[in-house]
């Protein structure tokens, strides 16, 4: 573990919901819930106004609606989240070359490479305060909570202690005092099953966990998990900030404007995606053992299924066959808005090559055309544009009618209008594609 507080963890506050509030002036200061809006949906992010009513991530949308019925329930706009995330990650990389993104809304930064005069607590505190100010600037108003400590573990815990828009710097030498009163669930990897095992032997806090020897921990939880907890309970974490993570998977996915219901069409799309994955594997001299499909249903519920081969492959036919088999186990009768195929467990060799086996004959694929239905899907929160009124977002839809509030991040809260769902003057709005000629 480092002797100075030189690892920073930044976590954008209620990220998806905050982006929606930024871009929709009428929702600022009001409860917003982003995720699946249907009966089987799950909350992805809740604004702090919604959290006051007990709404939280991973809660069913049904329960969230019962707790906070007056919230705005939105299906999410990933293009907006990605674009905002790229601004923040660009800022972080401008202050240190060692930035390790964990997701769209959080990352570690190694301050040893941040060109600071020293790594004393006052210096890193001033740096972190300025970084938070710059995040507000580059995101047009979003806030971030920041933690700084002597390890990834401590920095991540610190960033969660003063949310939202907080800053906690843990001085070197005080880490164990910080951890001891905390529940064992603060340690990464301590989920419900591990918590229950520890509870049965009378362990509830990190301080109680600290009294257990490494041998006892291994007997209780297994070698890898027990050793991990033994060291983290003592604030021992020497993991480096890794800006260039080794590729762990290769995947391709597609989102469709109209929900897919034709099973044969879905199989064809997965087969074509498998071919793209195999091509990328081949170009990089890689193969993989585990094939995964990702399916996002009509209500935003996202499912995944995986299967593992006995040896690595880069065969399009093999990957496609496994993907179609995995799809067969899922109920997609309600419609599918996203499909994806990925391969993980990567290696730089293919088992079949070692034995001189010939590759399977690749199947010829027919041309795949995703049908266009006259009835369009208007998801709550999606960006739209009207020929006369300009840009806005879907407030709600049903019974052949779509209601739109016309406003953007740059305008005041705007008027609300309703249209027939097939009104030719109303269309989905998407950000312009970047111009390749413009360069970096």
From TrEMBL:
Organism whose genome encodes this protein: Nocardioides mangrovi
Annotated localization: Cytoplasm
Major subcellular location class: cytoplasm
Domain of life: Bacteria
Residue positions of the active site: 106
Family according to the record: Belongs to the DNA polymerase type-Y family.
Residues reported to bind Mg(2+): 11, 105
E.C. number(s) listed in UniProt: 2.7.7.7
Alphabetical list of InterPro entries matching this protein: DNA/RNA_pol_sf, DNA_pol_Y-fam_lit_finger_sf, DNA_pol_Y-fam_little_finger, DNA_polymerase-Y, DNApol_IV, IMS_HHH_1, Rev_trsase/Diguanyl_cyclase, UmuC
Keyword entries, A-Z: Cytoplasm, DNA damage, DNA repair, DNA replication, DNA-binding, DNA-directed DNA polymerase, Magnesium, Metal-binding, Mutator protein, Nucleotidyltransferase, Transferase
Presence of the UniProt keyword DNA repair in the record: yes
Catalytic activity line of the entry: DNA(n) + a 2'-deoxyribonucleoside 5'-triphosphate = DNA(n+1) + diphosphate
Name the record gives this protein: DNA polymerase IV
Subunit structure: Monomer.
